[in-house]
Amino acid sequence: MPNPRYDVIAIGNAIVDVMAPCSDELIEQLGLVRGGMTLVDPQQARTLYQAMGPAREISGGSAANTLAGLALLGARCAFIGQVAQDQLGEVFAHDIRAAGIDFATPPRPGDPPTGRCLILVTPDGQRTMNTSLGASQFLPLEALDLEAVADALVLYLEGYMWDPPEPRAAMRKAIAAARAAGRKVAFTLSEAFMIELHGDDFRALIAEGLIDILFANHVELAALTGEEDFEAGVAALAPKVPILVVTRSADGAIAVAGGMRAEVPAEPVEAVVDTTGAGDLFAAGFLFGHVRGQSLQTCLKMGAVAAAEIISHFGARPEEDLQALMKKRLK
Predict the structure, then answer these.
(1) pTM score, two decimals?
(2) How many domains does the chain have?
């Protein structure tokens, strides 16, 4: 098999985080859930956007965050995700390409607009998030670049994208293309509520042998297996996937592959500033180690180092030199 063009290609939500400082009074005036995350429709998003002061726009989305970490580590990456023909769509496309990630999905004309997470930051640093998935829910089959999927070592899929029917169909087709080309499929469960909605689908993908690398946190593990005890959940799921990776927040992470188990503690940080994107960057570190042929233990360590970097500052995109950080921490 010839050397692939990409190390990792991902399908995920194309979202731009729009962050602005605001007063406590504005939170009350807008009737928002202070410190929470609420899904809003495009019209609500427009109303909130108009009410916000000067904002900072930072591209986000779970799988896109993972690719940003991978690219900074030196991986060759491509992203498939839907934006609209609007200003935020241009911001997302610019940011992901500037990170060295190939992005060729054509923008979608008309409504809904590009997905956005409107984040209002009060004087105490509390973040109130309002997410409108927008155009990202309407990724059509024809947007898939099946040649690119077949030309990547790993296809990485974001569980959040399984809910809307169009992206779900696209991901099923991408899985078939990757497997036909002899490539690996990695899947992140994303959130426990996705398992409540689509757990049967996820279990079927696993039972059919379509997932090679499964990422979960301890809450998602319990939701998927029905086992509240962590070790019972690992024992139930690990034999069903070639590689199982489970993160446990401050308790570190484990991975099981072919009956072999590895564990790492969480990397020390001076202060946990913002846990947004921790799982995304853990996946980035682990996948980079995996495509470079590192041991299971080293892959976990790389994941832990990348996650520690992201929780040490606001935002879900790395700010430090990840390659230098890996050299320092992996000695």
Answers:
(1) 0.91
(2) 1
